Amino acid sequence: MATEHAEGLTEIFDTVAALAPEIREALPGRRVKSDETNPSGETQLAADSYADELFLDRLGDLDGVVEYASEERTKAVHTDDDGQNYDAGDLSVAIDPLDGSSNLQSNNTMGTIVAVYDAPLPASGADLVGAAYVLFGPITTMITADDEGVTEYLVDDGTRQVIREDVTLPEEPSVYGFGGRVPDWPADFADYADEVEADDTMKLRYGGAMIGDINQVLTYGGVFSYPALQSAPNGKLRLQFEGNPIGFIIESAGGRSSDGSGSILDVEPTDLHQRVPVHVGNEGLVERLEAALD
Ligand code: P6P
After folding, report:
1. Where in the chain are the domains?
2. Architecture of the domain spanning 3-164
3. Mind listing the pLDDT tens digit for each residue in 226-236?
4. What's the CATH fold of domain 175-293?
5. Residue 65 CB: number of other CB atoms within 10 A?
6. Could you report the per-residue pLDDT of 97-117, keeping only the tens digit for each?
7. Which residues does the UniProt record annotate as the domain Fructose-1-6-bisphosphatase class I N-terminal (predicted)?
8. Which residues, in sequence order, are bridge partners of residue 162?
9. Does ligand 1 lie within 6 Å of residue 99's CB atom?
10. How does DSSP assign 217-267, residue by residue?
11. Residues tagged in the binding site annotation for Mg(2+)
């Protein structure tokens, strides 16, 4: 890990892990919809707002963190006392406090996505120094990625206990998950999906929370796409909070990311809540996708 960021990243990942049991315990009582919507126009659950406030409070307190942004907030919050100054070593955190919170009412997987940039937000994926996600499944796990690779932890008790080091995508892919409604897929993506589905070594795994589907790809090899749609040319997922961190994690695990034409990490940031088509997985599958969309 780049020494200038090692301490800051460790503090951020430890803080996110420490909050995991507290957030998981609070979920049962916060399944209700609030009458608020987030900047992307999605209905907020009480759990979304609760988790967002908790992350801002704890991450904002860290000396190394100078800026906090989340899917639930219109603007970034400057959390240091020297205002807009951005000094070497400062870190910005962009977080999806509860990715897939609509799965809460159906008791399916969900969790938290964290992107750590060494640049003001909105930032390019090239400015990422680390990324992570916490997955609330049958057990609570955390995946972290930095310049040393990808590690999986058990975080049930709020501490990070390593369960897998140097995590890489299996060479032989076996799962796929494609978001959006099939009639809304552009023809070239629909053709690619048909090709993948015709492959009898591939099984459909799509659960409605990106990180649950990504964890399937990271564990079994395959491809996850939330493509550009006819009704939404930039797709649904947000670059700062979903596309960049997940692209960083999958690329750090030896896979590929793409917005349809090239690495998601190269997409120019223009707005904090900009959307981006997201394709991540084994190199061969992503290369075939880019050829299909070309
Ligand atoms: P759809 C959850 O709301 C999310 O942002 C991602 O976690 C997930 O991959 C996607 O949206 C699911 O979208 O259209 O299938 O409900």
Report:
1. 3-164, 175-293
2. 2-Layer Sandwich (3.30)
3. 999 999 999 99
4. D-Maltodextrin-Binding Protein; domain 2 (3.40.190)
5. 21
6. 999 988 988 999 999 999 999
7. 34-157
8. 153
9. yes
10. HHHH-EEEEE---SS-TT-SSBIIIIIHHHHHHHHHTT-EEESSSS-GGGS
11. 71, 96, 98-99, 242
